[in-house]
């Protein structure tokens, strides 16, 4: 078995890439400043020195109405879609490496957790961050491009206080590893994701394999969790809609505290649509607070006794309503989009942990991207000489799709996939293993991949030509 078929896990500290301080980091900032005076896909420098990112894509998304999805998928029922070449009609103009970066949209929650002295308050904030990490998937029915082996993606956001590097570390099985760290040395956030997509007739389900780790360095704490299942309904006909479901457990390994979150399935009448409920307990299993809300809207925390008292009152008021519901016609098709989408009913005495940001007005015409997602593939001229040539921004198929050139995007996607297959056959023929030229990731004998440092020194010599 080659190293492309293995993956491992470890926990790190923020002691890598010290060589990047000064030269390479400043050269990156200088390049951005130089590029800011040129045409740069809608990004412009601000008076305070921070860059304003673009708020739209170069072209609106294409219409899928003329595509017969059933003719493509009818032979794929029960199969893992990562092993099937899918037409570009299913895609959105981002690589999965860029899609993972959307975990960082609400980085302020990590910074807040770092500043809190109470471990229970930190766990509540980490729980809010874990829920916020999937919020960008609301109405995002396009599939990100599968990363090529050796593809990387870099993002530095000074205004949010982090830098991130991600890399496709395995092709079979597909494994994407990421590492983000605070620019002030407060946290490290990393993980390896190897999603499995399956088609079930009227829906596509993504199984979120992989562990995510957040380290709060000041508090010497490490939290781990995995994302919930994601299901896209009405693949064949009807309105596409997304459901997150399943149990997510967040563990603080220093204190033994645990947060258990239940992303509820929609249910027969849609009452549970998008709902998240759970609790936080200490190592003796005493519950300290109840967490509730919707992953598409907001998350709240409340005292367990207050929560139970409120639920008792609700049950009394619901008896009549339940009898009325039983008299109504049942919903025979679980894939129908529920009409019931009321907002969260806030329990008196609750504390708001997180609220979703509003999306740009043109989001529906731009693959339902958030403001954060809209900026991920922008490429300023000043960045071209600084980024690794393996960066996702240089992928010609994604760039063509973003610009609305669908025929070119499809042709380039096929070319890149064939080039990757040919390279893999050549390595197998010569009994060669894939080597990581940037030194960004390695495995250590456990489950996930670990960032070993080196990327931000920007030594791009002898990199493979993957595009």
Quick synopsis:
It comes from Takifugu bimaculatus. This protein has helices spanning 23-36, 69-73, 96-101, 107-115, 119-135, 304-327, 371-374, 396-402, 406-429, and strands at 44-45, 51-52, 91-95, 143-145, 152-157, 162-170, 175-182, 187-193, 196-199, 203-207, 212-216, 221-225, 229-233, 241-252, 258-263, 275-281, 287-294, 298-302, 351-355, 441-443, 449-451. By secondary structure, it is of the alpha+beta class.
Outline the structure in words.
There is one protein chain. This protein has about 475 residues and is of the alpha+beta class. The protein has one domain: Porin. About 25% of the residues lie in helices and about 25% in strands. The chain contains 9 helices and 21 strands. The chain has helices spanning about 25-35, 70-75, 95-100, 105-115, 120-135, 305-325, 370-375, 395-400, 405-430; strands at about 45, 50, 90-95, 145, 150-155, 160-170, 175-180, 185-195, 195-200, 205, 210-215, 220-225, 230-235, 240-250, 260-265, 275-280, 285-295, 300, 350-355, 440-445, 450. The chain has a 15-stranded antiparallel β-sheet that branches. The two termini are about 25 Å apart.
């Amino acid at each position: 078995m080659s190293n492309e078929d293995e993956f491992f896990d470890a926990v790190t500290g923020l002691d890598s890439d010290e060589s990047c301080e000064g030269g390479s980091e400043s050269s990156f900032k200088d390049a951005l400043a130089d590029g800011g005076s040129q045409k740069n896909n809608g990004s412009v420098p601000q008076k305070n020195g921070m860059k304003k990112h673009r708020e739209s894509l170069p072209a609106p998304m294409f219409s899928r109405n003329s595509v017969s999805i059933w003719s493509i998928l009818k032979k794929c029922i029960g199969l893992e879609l990562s092993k099937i070449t899918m037409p570009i009609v299913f895609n959105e103009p981002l690589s999965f490496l860029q899609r993972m970066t959307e975990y960082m949209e609400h980085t302020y929650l990590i910074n807040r957790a770092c500043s809190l002295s109470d471990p229970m308050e930190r766990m509540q904030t980490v729980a809010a961050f874990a829920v916020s990490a999937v919020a960008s998937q609301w109405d995002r029915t396009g599939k990100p491009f599968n990363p090529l082996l050796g593809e990387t993606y870099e993002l530095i956001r000074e205004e949010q206080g982090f830098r991130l590097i991600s890399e496709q570390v395995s092709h079979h099985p597909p494994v994407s590893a990421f590492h983000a760290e605070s620019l002030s040395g407060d946290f490290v956030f990393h993980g390896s994701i190897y999603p499995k997509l399956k088609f079930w007739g009227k829906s596509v389900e993504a199984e979120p394999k992989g562990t995510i780790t957040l380290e709060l360095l000041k508090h010497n704490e490490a939290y781990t969790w995995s994302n919930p299942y994601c299901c896209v309904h009405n693949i064949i006909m009807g309105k596409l809609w997304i459901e997150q479901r399943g149990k997510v457990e967040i563990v603080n390994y220093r204190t033994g505290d645990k947060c258990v979150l239940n992303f509820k399935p929609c249910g027969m009448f849609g009452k549970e649509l998008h709902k998240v409920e759970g609790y936080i307990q200490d190592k003796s299993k005493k519950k300290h607070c109840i967490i509730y809300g919707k992953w598409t809207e907001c998350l709240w925390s409340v005292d367990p006794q207050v929560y139970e008292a409120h639920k008792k009152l609700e049950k009394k008021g619901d008896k009549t309503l339940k009898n009325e519901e039983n008299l109504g016609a049942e919903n025979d098709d679980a894939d129908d989009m529920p009409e019931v989408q009321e907002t969260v009913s806030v329990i008196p005495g609750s504390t708001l942990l997180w609220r979703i940001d509003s999306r740009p007005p043109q989001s529906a015409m731009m693959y339902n991207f958030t403001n954060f997602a809209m900026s991920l593939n922008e490429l300023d001229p000043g960045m071209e000489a600084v980024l690794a040539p393996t960066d996702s921004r240089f992928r010609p198929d994604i760039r063509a799709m973003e610009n609305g050139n669908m025929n070119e995007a499809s042709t380039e996607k096929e070319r890149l996939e064939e080039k990757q297959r040919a390279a893999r056959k050549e390595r197998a023929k010569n009994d060669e293993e894939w080597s990581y030229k940037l030194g960004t990731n390695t495995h250590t004998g456990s489950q996930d991949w670990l960032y070993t440092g080196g990327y931000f020194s920007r030594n791009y010599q002898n990199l493979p030509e993957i595009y």
